[in-house]
Amino acid sequence: MPRLLVDVTPLRTSRNFRLLFLGQLVSLLGSNLTIVAVAYQVYQETHSSLWVGVVSFIQLPLLIIGSLWGGALGDRFDRRTLLIIASFVLGLLSCALGANASLHHANFAVLVIVPALAAGFADSRGPFERQPFRRWSDPKNSSPLIRSTRSSLTSAPLPVRARRACCWRRSASRGATSSTA
Fold first, then answer.
1. pLDDT per residue over 51-97, tens digit each?
2. Which of 6, 113, 126, 172 would bridge 152 by S-S if both were Cys, CB 3.0 to 4.6 A apart?
3. Nearest to 115 by CA among 102, 98, 128, 130
4. For residue 10, which of 179, 141, 110, 173 has the smallest C-alpha distance?
5. Residue 66: which domain range?
6. Burial tier of 19 (Cβ tally within 10 Å: 0-12, 13-18, 19+)
7. Is residue 165 assigned to a domain?
8. Cβ-contact 121, 87 below 8 angstroms
9. What value does the CA radius of gyration of the chain take, rounded to a whole number of Å?
10. Does the residue 5 lie in any domain?
11. Do the beta carbons of residue 127 and residue 67 sit within 8 Å?
12. Residue 181 has pLDDT above 60, yes or no
């Protein structure tokens, strides 16, 4: 049984790695919550799954551009500064989404534009966000352990996302059938 579980030795032995791991876990949870919240809010505003798909599709070009420019900018400028700037802008965009959600009638343009900008900025920091994981590997060659621990961070929410999507579709379809009856 222990061979099936992820070895968490780097989390126990390195304080810096533990702080980085927990910080990225909180960031990942917030990002996933934002994705679901925006989709839910778009559906509540429009009652159309087509608009939910359109809002998600609009994010794709900015996601690709952000990834390409992030790598190029990371090669040209200080990666730490770029990471701080991108994180600050993402925080501002999250505040804008929160302020828009608190309005009685949310501005639909904000629901379309702000998540797309956030997707671009979030992906722009991807190429140089993984750099600290390599830097904090200890000299005992725990690099494979760190990589496996980090990959468990990004892959662990996948079953949760699939379950949440199924539940959301079921509740949306129940709402549609009960409102037409």
1. 999 999 999 999 888 888 887 887 888 888 888 888 899 889 999 99
2. 6
3. 98
4. 141
5. 16-130
6. exposed
7. no
8. no
9. 19
10. no
11. yes
12. no
Q: CA dist 3 to 6, 13, 144, 145, Å?
A: 8, 19, 15, 13
Identity of the amino acid at 58: I
> Quick check: 115 and 59 in contact, CB under 8 A?
yes
Q: How far apart are CA 51 and CA 20, in angstroms?
A: 36
Distance CA 90, CA 92 (A): 5
| Residue with tokens 């679901």, as numbered in its chain | 36
**DSSP symbol at 83:** H
Count: domains in the chain = 1
Structure tokens, 2: 């222990």
Distances (CA, A) of 104 to 52, 107, 110: 20, 9, 14
Per DSSP, 27 falls in state H
**CA geometry: angle at 102 spanning 96 and 107, to 5°?**
65
pLDDT confidence bin for 102, thresholds 50/70/90: very high
Domain presence at residue 126: yes
